[in-house]
Amino acid sequence: MALDNRGRSMSANFIATLSTLVPATPSGSPFITGATLVGVATDGDLYGLGFEFDVGSSNITVTALGRWKVSGDSKIHFASITNASGVDITGANVSIDMSNSADADGYVYAALSAPVTLTASSTYAMLVAQNASFVDQFYHENTAVTYTGDASVRYSVYCGPNFAGGSRGTYGHAAGTSHSYGPVNFKYHL
Q: CB neighbours of 100 closer than 8 A, spacing ≥ 6?
């Protein structure tokens, strides 16, 4: 039996309701560890924006996908990890509710329904769809990022239009090594 802070019992219905109101913090370590943010833009197209990356010598297991929260962001964004050909990795997609509070590093995450393993020495893209509401904002492709040593960011990428609608198209590479639109992020463990 669960007790509140005064020692009174709480019903299972109350506990279930409370758990849906307060999203759990996804497990894992963030891949992106720092960002030099460059130029804010406003959503308006359904392009997927993010970065392409190479997994290092060990598989990594992704637990959550995230997007940087610019002040005032409040919409829901589709996020996905795809292979180098733009095909979604099964189970590696979520909807990120930007009305939630950002973590201490500035990101809002959504946990995957189950962890997804990315293969060592393979190339992937982490992309988040913008929305057509002209409300939420993101940082430009020139945003430089630092990251852990378990994978490496190749460059910022975009794809679409209609990324969230499933029509990926091919990637466009926007800025040089170690850059990301958004920026976007994921949590993982080895």
A: 23, 108
- Domain region containing 101: 26-189
Q: Is the pLDDT of residue 22 over 60?
A: no
% residues pLDDT > 70 (the chain)? 75
- Mean pLDDT along residues 10-23: 45
Rounded distance between C-alpha atoms, residue 81 and residue 157, angstroms: 12
Burial class (CB in 10 A: 0-12, 13-18, 19+), 75: middle
- C-alpha 30/C-alpha 45 separation (Å) is 27
**Residue 13 burial by CB count (10 A; 0-12/13-18/19+): exposed, middle or buried?**
exposed
Alpha carbons 15 and 13: distance in angstroms, whole number: 5
Task: Report yes or no on 172 lying in a domain.
Answer: yes
Report the domain count for the chain.
1
CATH code of 80's domain: 2.60.120
14 or 92, which is more confident? 92
pLDDT value at 47 more than 90: no
Residues 120 and 54: their CA atoms lie apart, in Å, by 8
